Amino acid sequence: MSNRTSRATTLGVLTAAAALITVGAAPAVAGGSDGGNGNGRTGYGQPRSYELTVMGTSDLHGNILNWDYFANAEYTDRPGNDVGLAKIASLVEQVRAEKGAANTLLVDNGDLIQGTPLAYYYAKVDPITEGAQHPMATAMNALGYDAAVLGNHEFNYGLPLLRAFEDQVDFPLLGANVLDATTGDPAFTPYTISTVRPDGRGKPIKVGFVGVTTPGSAIWDRANVEGVLEFGGVVEQAAYWVPKVREAGADVVVVLAHTGADGGSSYGDALPFPENAAVEMAEQVPGIDAVLTGHAHREIPERVVINEQTGEEVVLSMPLRWGMRLSTFDIDLSYERGTWTVDSVNAELLNANTVPEDPEIVDLVADQHATVVDYVNSVVGTSLAPMSAATARYRDTAALDFINYVQALEVQRNLTGTDAELPVLSIAAPFNAQAAIPAGDVSVRDIAGLYIFDNTLLGVRMTGAQIKDYLEFSARYFQQVSSAGPLAPSQVTNAVTPTAQTGTPDYNYDVMAGLDAPLTYQIDLSQPVGSRIVGLAYDGAPIDPAQEFVVAVNNYRQSGGGNFPHVKDAPVVHNAQQEIRQLMIDWVSAQGVIDPAVFSSTNPDWVLTYGGEPLVIE
Predict the structure, then answer these.
(1) What integer best gives the mean pLDDT of the chain?
(2) Superfamily of domain 2-373
(3) CA angle 64, 586, 132 (to 5 degrees)
(4) What angle, 0 to 180 degrees and rounded to 10, lies between the N-to-C axes of helices 398-413 and 580-591?
(5) Per-residue pLDDT tens for 409-466?
(6) Any signal peptide, and if so, which residues (predicted)?
(7) Rounded CA gap, 132 and 123, in Å?
(8) In sequence order, what are the beta bridge partners of 371?
């Protein structure tokens, strides 16, 4: 719970890091006369105190229904989460019924139009730039959102599609630090002010929403934004715009910050501003009452940060991704001498799995949902041979070779300068032992089964010595054995380690392959961890420890997932925020035919051995 001392509602203007013109959105009237919760009044009927509730979603990623399009079934996960705006709608209506609809506002924290086949379909297959209505716009308009901030994934499909989406929604898309590359002016609305009138009378309360987004889009979507948009720092631009919102009369300021809570950047020092800066912003920028944060796909019910200049408390909340949670900020205000003042802010999360889907939202998108279900079950190509992932944990398979081939090909295609001259490798993990590509017709769902996570693709630069270290670390996945077998898979895989005391999960084992020439090696399980990689060679020659390679990796691994060595600190040479799963689908759609001979040799790239003798696993 957070409490604060009273303070004036207008703060002095802070010095901006860069000169910008003042751009403000026209106030949107959000309050009405259908309810009130003032406790006590002045002699003129003015409430003396009031509670305002601001609800927030983040990282919805195109999830409207509680549906897994790749599984062709209702969404489910181990913790029992539900997803989608239809679930969120039921939570929103609960809060509105409890608080009085006129005493609530609803906002979103970005990453709206990318992440599901539903979102992809209306960006690429039947794009909204050609007349279709985006289902996210339909659902969010029906829910009555007051504002949203741009997430980094809003730029994935290009600016024409983003502008088309902006035209379809009934609320402003905010981006105070998204700047026109030519003029330096904001390219999107920096802020908006919503007006709430307690009990439908008395002096209204003005609620300012400032929107800032992580500046990494300058790298992740360089192809879409370079020369057109620039991205200022979260802290620097908030320091400029928050005073402007106060000057415009805001009694309450909420920052919609599509940035993680704590510092750090997946793009290293390629930009002068950090990727994740919500806490830093709350500490350094006076005048903020609450921060809706996101981008990191984590769950923060309430976090209190002390502003270093004023000593005031700033409350942060982050709802879990895909509509699994709804953040609520209860903001208590008091009225004295013509001024509304924030007294306290309390935040909590509501769980979407506690409510049914809102039937109105379900009905609104039913036809588009059915269209996309048909699409993901549609045939996009033909495979000349079956490919199974059943043995991919302990045997070189065409299934993982396919993933590595598509990843490496895409990274190579985007390399420039001297990086384009380096050999390209790729890593892939055996995510799903049940996955199989059949011989004959192949559907979108078949391909997606090989890659069940929504990871994105990066390319990093590593040396031969670092690659050997990486493979040695990966080989910890295997148990040490006492003979060449025969052995059961359970006697070989999922080794217990100090950090994986119930066994190393399959997704923390990587195999590596070359694109234009083979990378070959043996994993000798007669040897201890750290000394298992034998005969590591590239294009038939022992690998040079000093030679540089570009390695295609997923964002989970590059950000430190699994704690693999070197990859987190390796120079990033490609990062366009492309979903690997979608890249595979696109490749099959473009080629029409999957021929395993193109990317998988009859001679395995890697084998498990015992003292040089191939391991027999049955």
Answers:
(1) 91
(2) Metallo-dependent phosphatases (3.60.21.10)
(3) 45
(4) 90
(5) 999 999 999 999 999 999 999 998 989 999 999 999 999 889 988 788 999 999 999 9
(6) 1-30
(7) 9
(8) none
Tens of pLDDT, residues 360-378: 999 999 999 999 999 999 9
User: Which ranges in the chain are annotated with CATH 3.60.21.10?
Assistant: 2-373
Tell which residue, 22, 105, 83, has the closest CA to residue 290.
Answer: 105
Q: What is the pLDDT of residue 541?
A: 98
Q: Which residue in the block uniquely carries the two structure tokens 């026209």? A: 26
In this prediction, residues 157-174 reach a mean pLDDT of 97
**CA 474 vs CA 403, 467, 532, 554: distances in Å:** 18, 10, 10, 15
Query: What is the structure's pLDDT at 3?
Result: 46
H/E run at residue 191: strand 191-196
**What is the distance between the alpha carbons of residues 605 and 540, in angstroms, rounded to a whole number?**
11
Pairing, β 325-336 against β 339-351? antiparallel
- Identify whether the C-beta of residue 483 lies closer than 8 Å to the C-beta of residue 463: no
User: Tokens 């730039």 map to which residue?
Assistant: 129
Structure tokens at 379: 């045939």
The CA distances from residue 19 to 15, 232, 236, 241, 483, in Å, are 9, 12, 11, 11, 70
**Tokens 């949107």 sit on residue:** 28
Residue carrying the six token digits 């910890």:
476
More reliable by pLDDT, 39 or 613: 613
The model carries a pTM of 0.79
- Top CATH class, 378-614: alpha beta
